[in-house]
Specification:
- The structure is a single chain.
- The chain has 176 residues and is mainly α.
- The protein has a single domain, classed as de novo design (two linked rop proteins).
- Helix content is 82%, strand content 0%.
- The chain is built from six helices and no strands.
- α3 runs antiparallel to α4.
- The radius of gyration is 24 Å and the shape is elongated.
- The two termini are 48 Å apart.
Length: 176
Amino acid sequence: MRQMTKLLLAVAVMVLAVQSSTAQAQAIRDAGSKIRGSSGYSHQGGYRSLWHARDYAGDYRSYSTDAHRENRRVTPEEAQESAEGLGANIKKAQKHFGQARKHAGGDKETIAALDKIDALLATALKSHAEMAEMCKHDEIDTKGTMKCCTDAEAALEQAIAEHEKLIKRLAAKPAK
């Protein structure tokens, strides 16, 4: 009986030691872990916002192209809703990538990639601002808003590609 108690006590101590070392290992992560989304901050929010913004631009572009072809009018409400969704998601992406920049530390390659993404987001936001201005009128300039969405969509697609390259590089980067 005494040996059984000692054995159970030894097993319990081992279980606690394993749990403690696992928790410590999880707490000690490399600097790139945050930016890869494995700790605290996640790039998923930025990535999701990029895609949502791109979807707003693409959907409105398709809708307005069809409306133009069919000689239909795009209402200010429809255009404004799309412009608001586009702008809100670009701003969310900027916020997320601003957080990623804070977690990047001194990683110059990551900072350079985030600079590219920021520049592309600024281009998309400029196109959004032009579109939003056009949406304030009773008559929507369908061709003009289509061009704004095409420009924003192109910049967002490039930003998505840059972000995917960044994530692949960070995932391949060895932990320090």
